[in-house]
From TrEMBL:
PANTHER family: ALPHA-AMINOADIPIC SEMIALDEHYDE DEHYDROGENASE (PTHR43521). This is aldehyde dehydrogenase (NAD(+)). Homotetramer. Belongs to the aldehyde dehydrogenase family. Gene3D superfamilies: Aldehyde Dehydrogenase, Chain A, domain 1, Aldehyde Dehydrogenase, Chain A, domain 2. Its EC number is 1.2.1.3. Residues 20-478 form the Aldehyde dehydrogenase domain. SUPFAM superfamilies: ALDH-like. The active site is at E253.
């Protein structure tokens, strides 16, 4: 595995990271790879104050010049794509292709943000008053607190940081306590970009190492204008009232329970590949993982037969070995959660294939599983919850209405897809009466979004949007300006006030 060499690429000395209170383990074999010192709440407050000072200067730097810093960050990421991707694999357990793919996503958002730095457009609005002009201006917002989950340990920071930085904000990042090393590596790359940039204010982007107390410190601090938090719905429920109590802004990217509908006209070869990548990729630990398959009764037997064969040949093993498709679960708690969900599914009438622990002899401290396919009689209680593991619940349907109702019949609303060659089904699925999710795809699976679109979901997924489209507006504040260039002072709505 040789983590020392990987860390050395980022100037991080593994031998100096062995005395802190935070134990960092690789899910590949369960070994401890570092013990990091943790920040306190007082440290968090100092970091936020420093970020605020940086913001006060950065907001006056022209946006295209701010874009230059993000361009330099993108260059660093390009140069270290393989190394950072490998560190993601070691710390989060993703296969190498997915680790590098995550870094590619960071590069893509940097490119997107650089272009955007010249396009932070407002509007000109027709005024009802003669000799008046109305417009809308977008201004930098302040300090942005980023809280991220273990399963996208680096990309989530970049989705937020690249946009926040070009928008004129400063960033304080609290990564998952399960993946702090990748965060430290990103900070090194950011610092190198800062050096090349030259005159950016210090502390524009900082990392705080620690658990949920640090997340709560960000949520509670009046100077954190936006808290962008990615993680479980439980976390969002605990965090958002703290931010709301001080009227701060929250951008929430929480749990998903994503479904693929396969219609009677679907191209089953394509559907099979989409389902396999969505359900088994990242060992079922993506927010957009396919967790439910809603399949038309006329194609269900054939599709299930093919899926079972594909499942049994998906190679499970170390994510660092070429050919592996399914790496480990992040930790024992994830394994226990998966087993508990499978037991509930059995009790609720499910037929379970797979789900057993694997490679225990080779990796007694790690948690590998065979992905599980579970035929369910309907959407019982266990199907309604997100279990962060490779479990695919399969339900059959007769009419398309029924399928859409099932797709929408869960508390979460992140990603959804239909495989069909029937134009009416495809359009219905994307219409106002179709999928209620933030992402609704046709003939593409639920996972693997591109950065050009806005990313996020409805209901218990939290409602936030990150990444492309106009997601940048969350990182700025809007001012409406009305200018009177006449010699009169007409009041709006034609009001006469006094003589
Ligand atoms: P988690 O909720 O356990 O932790 C996420 C982050 O929140 C961590 O940094 C953690 O320290 C922090 N945190 C936890 N409780 C907190 C609290 N009460 N106050 C402040 N901070 C707190 O999630 P996880 O296990 O790391 O990640 C898996 C979850 O994240 C899944 O539910 C997955 O769907 C979700 N996720 C969502 C998206 C998305 O874009 N919608 C992306 C990735 C992951």
């Amino acid at each position: 595995m040789n983590i020392d060499d990987v860390l050395a690429e980022f100037g991080l000395d593994a031998t100096r990271m062995q005395n802190g209170s935070l134990s960092v383990r690789s899910p590949i074999d369960g070994t401890q790879v570092a013990r990091l010192a943790e920040h306190s709440t007082a440290d968090a407050h100092l970091a936020i104050d420093a970020a605020h000072t940086a913001f006060m200067a950065w907001r006056m730097v022209p946006a295209p010049r701010r874009g230059e810093l993000v361009r330099l960050l993108g260059d660093e990421l390009r140069a270290h794509k393989q190394g950072l991707g490998r560190l993601v694999s070691i710390e989060a357990g993703k296969i190498l292709a997915e680790g590098a793919g995550e870094v590619q996503e960071m590069i893509d958002i940097c490119d997107f943000a650089v272009g955007l730095s010249r396009q932070l457009h407002g509007l000109t609005i027709a005024s009802e008053r003669p000799g008046h002009r109305m417009m809308e201006t977008w201004h930098p917002l302040g300090v942005v607190g980023v809280i991220s989950a273990f399963n996208f340990p680096v990309a989530v920071w970049s989705w937020n940081a690249a946009l926040a930085l070009i928008c004129g904000d400063a960033v304080v990042w609290k990564p998952s306590e399960k993946t702090p090393l990748t965060a430290l590596a990103c900070q090194v790359l950011f610092n190198r970009a800062m050096e090349k940039f030259g005159d950016a204010p210090a502390n524009l982007s900082q990392v705080l190492i620690g658990g949920r107390e640090i997340g709560q410190a960000l949520a509670a601090h009046y100077r954190v204008a936006l808290v962008s938090a990615t993680g479980s719905t439980r976390m969002g429920r605990e965090l958002s009232p703290i931010v709301a109590a001080r009227f701060g802004r929250c951008l929430l990217e929480l749990g998903g329970n994503n479904a693929i509908i396969v219609g009677p006209t679907a191209d089953l070869d394509m559907a099979l590949r989409g389902i396999l990548f969505g359900a088994v990729g990242t060992a079922g630990q993506r927010c957009t993982t396919t967790r439910r398959l809603i399949v038309h009764e006329s194609v269900a037997d054939e599709l299930l037969g093919r899926l079972k064969r594909a499942y049994s040949s998906a190679r499970i093993g170390s994510p660092l070995e070429p050919g592996t498709l399914v790496g480990p679960l992040i930790d024992r708690a994830a394994y226990d959660g998966m087993q508990a969900a499978l037991e509930s599914a059995r009790q609720q009438g499910g037929k379970v294939v797979g789900g057993e622990r694997r490679l225990a002899d080779q990796y007694p401290q790690a948690w590998y599983v065979s992905p599980a396919l579970v035929e369910m009689p309907g959407q019982t209680k266990v199907v309604l919850q997100e279990t962060f593991a490779p479990i695919l619940y399969v339900m059959r349907y007769t009419t398309f209405d029924e399928a859409v109702e099932m797709q929408n019949g869960v508390p979460q609303g992140l990603s959804s897809a239909v495989f069909t060659n029937d134009l009416r089904e495809a359009e219905w699925f994307m219409s106002a009466a179709g999928s209620d999710c933030g992402i609704a795809n046709v003939n593409i699976g639920t996972s693997g979004a591109e950065i050009g679109g806005a990313f996020g979901g409805e209901k218990e997924t939290g409602g936030g949007r990150e990444s492309g489209s106009d997601a940048w507006k969350a990182y700025m504040r809007r001012a409406t300006n009305t200018v009177n260039f006449s010699r009169e002072l007409p009041l709006a709505q034609g009001i006469k006030f006094g003589s």
